[in-house]
């Protein structure tokens, strides 16, 4: 698997892109108002985009993916696959617009009214292809998605660029499975039997209905408020300096190897002995690295939580990921103690995945005035065992790539990915010189913690 910014990706050849037909654009323009509220995640994304544009800035907003298929692309079969995918998932059927400060939803009620048709763009250079992806329309446009292929001599690359409004990281795997399955089924002139897909629109409505049923005495609200109060009323921040970014500062993504496969097995054994899983060990390393860098006695962090754990949403494309908080004491503790506490913090807080912290920021309450409302996205640390993803064992052969869009990021997002041969740390951050030095320091500290745990070393850290 390849990771990085789209600037690191190089592909060239004859390009075909699937665009909505004129009739489809006309239908999207006439989309009907729908009362289902926008999800919290989508609301924050749209508001942040609008705010940044008013400041002359853009935001990192695209989920970009690519994979290879041997042979010459059958354009008719791929047309069938792309249209089947887009019609199947209602995340592509809706568009959003601001009315004053309210976000309204408009819906193409009949998915059959949506048709994407292939357009040959000729031979393109890597730079031209990257620009094609980055030119994917913004989230206030209905067609904020791009599908296409790049034909080489004996194989072709399928690429997607989907605005985050319509997809989260796990959606990339669902999109891959949908298109891959539909393409090969069409090649065989067979009829694909799709499993029913749960509506993302309904997910959004249910999310809002659930949070509306909560009050200040609800355990979920009290847990979020306790987390924020312990961190002096603020959401977590990256512990090192990032420098001052300008509108012209690009986003950056760096990839660091943490441990190899053998170390990964030993690291997992150390975690198990401490009563934690690999994920708990990852959070423990982050907490200990921050303690060594800053002296912080408690680690406060946010990690993405995939609400597809509800099996009804397992194959839904959309932004279903939210955050759960982590509060991990580190002062004077061994790795085993920190890993155990990290796992307990994560496991006990997964229920908060159904209650985005944005709800607290939008809801008046007796403690609301004490919450520091962020004006930019918050930093996060994610862990994914890529080996367990569908087709995960085949990713190297398919030359799968996941790419960031290298627009300015005002925060730090981190992904620890366990693969068959190594565990890596991927960091997206504002591309200033100060941030680059800080990220290098942080990555080195993380690597050292992983190495210590892999070697079974459990030195206590002075408080």
UniProtKB/TrEMBL annotation:
Domain named Condensation: residues: 68-362
Superkingdom, taxonomy of origin: Bacteria
Any Pfam family hit: Condensation
Gene3D superfamilies per the UniProt record, alphabetical: Chloramphenicol acetyltransferase-like domain (3.30.559.10), Nonribosomal peptide synthetase, condensation domain (3.30.559.30)
GO MF, one example: catalytic activity
One of the protein's GO biological processes: lipid biosynthetic process
Descriptive protein name: Condensation domain-containing protein
Source organism per UniProt: Mycobacterium numidiamassiliense
Higher taxonomy: Bacteria, Bacillati, Actinomycetota, Actinomycetes, Mycobacteriales
């Amino acid at each position: 698997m390849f990771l990085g910014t789209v600037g690191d990706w190089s592909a060239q050849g004859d390009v075909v892109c699937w665009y909505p037909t004129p009739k489809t654009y006309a239908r999207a323009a006439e989309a009907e108002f729908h009362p289902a509220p926008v999800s919290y995640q989508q609301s924050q994304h749209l508001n942040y985009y609008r705010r940044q544009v008013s400041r002359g800035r853009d935001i990192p907003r695209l989920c970009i993916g690519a994979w290879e298929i041997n042979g010459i692309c059958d354009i008719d079969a791929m047309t069938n696959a792309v249209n089947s995918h887009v019609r199947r998932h209602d995340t592509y059927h809706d568009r959003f617009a601001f009315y004053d400060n309210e976000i309204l939803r408009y819906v193409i009620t009949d998915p059959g009214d949506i048709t994407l048709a292939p357009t040959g763009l000729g031979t393109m250079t890597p730079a031209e292809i990257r620009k094609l992806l980055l030119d994917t329309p913004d989230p206030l446009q209905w067609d904020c998605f791009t599908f296409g292929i790049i034909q080489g001599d004996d194989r072709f690359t399928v690429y997607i660029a989907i605005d985050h409004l319509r997809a989260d990281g796990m959606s990339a795997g669902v999109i891959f499975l949908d298109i891959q399955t539909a393409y090969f089924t069409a090649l065989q002139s067979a009829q694909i039997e799709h499993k029913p897909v749960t509506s993302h629109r309904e997910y959004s409505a249910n999310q809002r209905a659930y949070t509306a049923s909560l009050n200040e005495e609800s355990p979920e609200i009290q847990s979020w408020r306790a987390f924020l109060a312990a961190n002096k009323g603020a959401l977590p921040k990256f512990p090192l300096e990032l420098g001052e970014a300008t509108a012209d500062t690009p986003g950056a993504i760096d990839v660091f190897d943490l441990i190899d496969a053998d170390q990964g097995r030993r690291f997992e054994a150390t975690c198990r002995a401490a009563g934690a899983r690999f994920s708990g060990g990852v959070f423990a390393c982050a907490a200990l690295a921050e303690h060594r860098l800053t002296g912080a006695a408690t680690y406060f962090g946010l990690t993405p939580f995939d609400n597809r754990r509800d099996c009804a949403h397992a194959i839904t494309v959309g932004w279903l990921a939210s955050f759960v908080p982590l509060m991990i004491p580190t002062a004077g503790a061994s790795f085993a103690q920190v890993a155990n506490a990290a796992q307990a913090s994560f496991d006990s807080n997964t229920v908060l995945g159904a209650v985005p912290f944005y709800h607290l920021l939008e809801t008046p309450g007796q403690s609301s005035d004490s919450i520091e409302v962020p004006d930019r996205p918050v930093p996060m640390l994610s862990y994914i065992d890529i080996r367990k993803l569908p087709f995960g064992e085949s990713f190297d052969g398919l030359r799968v790539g996941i790419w960031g869009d290298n627009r300015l990021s005002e925060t730090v997002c981190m992904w620890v990915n366990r693969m068959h041969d190594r565990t890596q740390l991927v960091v997206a951050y504002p591309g200033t010189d100060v941030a680059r030095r800080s990220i290098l320091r942080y990555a080195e500290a993380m690597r050292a913690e992983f190495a210590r745990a892999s070697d079974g070393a459990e030195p206590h850290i002075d408080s």
